[in-house]
Amino acid sequence: MPTFRYRAYGLDGAVAEGTVDAATSDAASELLWGRGLSPYQLRPATGGGTKWWNRDITIGGGSRRTDLLAFTRDFSMLNAAGIPMDNALHILKAQASTPRLRMLIESLLADVLNGVSLSDAMQKQPEVFPQDYIAIVRAGETGGRLAGVLVELAELLSQRAEIRQRVQSALIYPSLLVVLSVATLSVILGSLIPSIAPIFSQGGKPLPASLGFMLAIRDHWLEIVILIGIVASALAGVFTAAYRKPEGRKRLDHWKLRVPLIGSFLLSQETARFTRTLGSMLKAGVPLSQAAKSSAALVRNRYIAESLDRAIEAIHQGSSLNGALREDAVLPSIALQMIAVGEEAGKLEQMLTNVALMLESEVQSWIDRFMSALTPALTVGIALLVGGLILPVMNAVLSITDMAAR
Length: 406
What we know:
mainly alpha; Receptor-associated Protein; 3 domains; three-stranded antiparallel β-sheet; 16 helices
């Protein structure tokens, strides 16, 4: 029987987590409700879930992101117009642009008509709706501001889609450079050098070391590829095994944060995810401790997540959000300062949203700078590589010319 991992609120408002065995996610949810728990996160435990041979065949994840953006954008507009949820879903179903989007909306509509909340219906589609998305929708339902939450989500998803499109567009030219460089190297190693090498043996001259090295690569390329594959697989296996252990994953995530540039990028990304979700939940009227617990559960970096868990324990004991985060959490100093100002001014929800917007803008700027530097760096690197191969060939050609002159 499948095992599901859950996070739920108890009767006293405390957060409980663990595993439950049930045939389906619906059955697991019913079991938890029977125990007096209100589940807000339910997913198959590691190693469980549907076997790969029983899953739907899909190509890539981009189309699901497109479906999510299209659904959120259109659904938010209909909700903002005051159209009832079931009528809005009927309209979206009739206007669905793809069969998969239509099936998704049909599933949501069937659950809503059966009395299931929208967030619980989305919980059954984890391959489409991320956990942070569902948490924000649930907060909107709790606070009676679902329309506003959906508008915020549509704007966030549109921004993320724009970033992905800009990255994909920026990668076109570097990809062409890599393909052309590989083709050039293949011609040099596969045709040009083998045609020059016999001339030296016929002339009684030793083959230059550089040409001998290139010929060795050409003759043993398969062994080299296999060796690289074995080493890469071994390293991947070691990292995977370490990542599956909680302590190993925590150490790896901590190491990521210490890497120059990449660490600050990951920290800003995780902080933006935490503050946006927390701000949306607080706007919806969710108590601070519960909202912080739910928001911290969405942080993927375990080192940051554990620091947030320690801060949340301090909040349970009566500490302010700013004091708890400043004491225990691993967050950017500018974010902590803005949270402190928002808490003192009584505008914590809005300030958390502002923090998320600022950090998301920083992440976007970081990506833009990286992509702007990638193209010239690749151009220079490929030019040096090709030049390093051409130079020995040219020297060999000049040597052949000298041999012919003598």
